[in-house]
Amino acid sequence: MNAPLTSPTETQSRKADHIRICLDENVQCHQATNGLERYRFTHCCLPEIDRSEINLTTQFLGKPLAAPLLISSMTGGTELAKTINYRLATVAQHYKIAMGVGSQRVAVENPEVAPTFNVRSLAPDILLFANLGAVQLNYSYGLDQCLRVIDWLEADALILHLNPLQECVQTKGDTNFRGLLAKIATLCQKLPVPVIAKEVGNGISGAMAQKLIEAGVQAIDVAGAGGTSWAKVESERATDAKQRRLGATFAEWGLPTAECITSIRAIAPTIPLIASGGLRDGLEVAKAIALGADLAGLAQPFLQAACESETALAELAEVLIAEIETVLFCTGSPTIEALRRSQALELKV
Questions:
Q1: 206 phi and psi, to 5 degrees?
Q2: Are 248 and 235 a contacting pair, CB within 8 Å?
Q3: Which of 21, 24, 224, 328 could form a disulfide with 260 if both were Cys (CB 3.0 to 4.6 A apart)?
């Protein structure tokens, strides 16, 4: 088993860099898109419903949500990350939407920073996801570390994120992915909460989803291309020309989010499915739901608002909800389930 290659201090510094780069540098995809622009809704000029009665409530992994929204995994491990997570959790609780925290590896390595993640006291009712990198199972992590981060967070599920491209570009990245599927399968059998497999912006194909489901993964977050490029992020952090070149070469690599949704739904019609990767507004959330996702995750818009203020976060949540409601109203869909059944989403000609 490989030993960790970085120190707790290095991991904490990397987390601080990630926030700064995502906020200040041009690390969004430009050529790759989430694929949702290829679709449009058929407008219903006479919805025959009262907009005030539209119901966005849904369930994911058995827990009720007021809207099909997830504040996607972002950060933790620094004082700024603590402020961000606490603001995110407060807003998630108010609007009864789901939230994931960033990778808790930094807290495993340095338990003193665990409070930067521990938001359950601020959000006692929300659907909350813990998070570790799957590759760490090849670098001394196992059941104990997974249980620890779940317990710290009082989490409803554990995200295992899959990030081979990011690790290739990251200076001193962890790139031994051999045998991980079997280790994931073992964890799925032993953990007391569901395991969610998540990419970080390059997508999960239908074929890979099938393997993960067979291993026991109980939900999938496609995290497709079209949003933040973690190849670009790590290229910004790179300490040598080779790593910078790798990040530039693979900046637009990945499967579009829309393609991931449709390919996974073709082979797994009922697996709980999260659409994330480049989603920017409630219209794209609604498109993802209509394509087959159960939940839609956004990261960058929430990060920007959280760094501004709790008020900015609340305003973002309000507008996202209003945008989703408007789609339902203008497609004649009184509920989220009705939108899924509506067949109102079509490919543009």
A1: -60, -40
A2: yes
A3: 224
